[in-house]
Design brief:
- The protein is α/β, with parallel strands linked by helices and about 260 residues long.
- The chain has helices at about 30-45, 60-70, 75-80, 85-100, 110-125, 150-165, 180, 210-215; strands at about 20-25, 50-55, 100-105, 130-135, 170-175, 205-210, 230-235, 245-250.
- The protein has an eight-stranded mixed β-sheet, sandwiched between helices.
- A hairpin with an 8-residue loop joins strand 7 (about 230-235) and strand 8 (about 245-250).
- It starts with 19 loop residues before the first strand and ends in an 8-residue tail after the last strand.
């Protein structure tokens, strides 16, 4: 299986069954949009079966965002209903396209044990090859732990073991601490993931998302940047000698693409 990043589709960034992938960023960096673009590529172009476990947004909102993305319709226009005939046609076509995907959406907030059971069931019934969890900090478990970091270690370890046992990829979206916002250079680094368990050996791949325009473009210091510029920073990847690797991309909230 291969993910696509802004048209980059080569052997440099393969993801495989048995891997736990972390996609992390501060609020406003576009983690969910990044996930939806991966879904569009994997389900729409590659024909993969995928499961989204959304602990943050409802599945109806995610479907709306997917329709905006696939139909190339402005998301604000969709929300307001200010659509022309061409927009409606695009939305209907995108809805029919999404219905043909092997995609399961689950927005029920349940503990880790139930999440793992759902993944096992979807592997058996739908043969899912990739699972997205949005986002990892909202996952809890039924065990009593001494600290949240210990609990997170247990959660991450269980997800990694499940990925290996089922030969699937599990992608978890993660928040970053505010540390990067206190630095003059706001670019995130691996240590900005607050929970050490998330960036531990259990995570095979760690991707950090960054948009300079979120911090600078509206400031009065005259700093010149394009609000559509974005960076995908590969901070951890198996056997990659030069880390981190930065991939420059374009970002649009209105059109839903990353």
């Amino acid at each position: 299986m291969m993910s696509e990043v802004n048209g980059r589709n080569d052997n440099s960034f393969n993801i495989h069954g048995g891997q736990l992938i972390v996609v992390a960023g501060r609020p406003g960096m576009g983690k969910s949009l990044f996930m939806l673009n991966q879904i569009k590529y994997l389900c729409g172009k590659k024909g993969e079966a995928a499961l989204i476990i959304s602990l943050d947004e409802s599945k109806y909102k995610l479907v709306g965002r997917l329709m905006s993305l696939c139909g190339e319709v402005d998301s604000d226009s969709m929300h307001s209903g200010n659509l022309n005939d061409g927009d409606w046609e695009s939305i209907i076509n995108s809805a029919n396209t999404i219905l043909g995907w092997h995609l399961v959406l689950d927005d029920e907030r349940t503990p880790l044990e139930s999440i793992c059971e759902k993944i096992r069931t979807m592997k058996k019934v739908e043969n899912v090859s990739i699972v997205f969890i949005d986002f990892i900090q909202l996952v809890t478990c039924n065990r009593e732990m001494k600290s949240r970091n210990e609990e997170m270690g247990y959660i991450v370890s269980k997800l990694k073991n499940l990925a290996v046992a089922l030969d699937i990829s599990i992608v978890v979206l993660s928040q970053l601490s505010r540390t990067c916002e206190k630095r003059e250079d706001h670019h995130p680094v691996l240590m900005d993931i607050r929970e050490t368990a998330i960036r531990s050996e259990n995570a095979d791949v760690v991707i950090l998302l960054y948009r300079e325009g979120y911090y600078r473009c509206d400031s009065s210091d005259g700093y010149g940047c394009n609000p559509m510029d974005a960076e995908v920073i590969v901070a951890k990847y198996p056997n990659m000698k030069e880390i981190p690797v930065t991939i420059h991309m374009k970002f649009s909230v209105e059109n839903g693409w990353y």
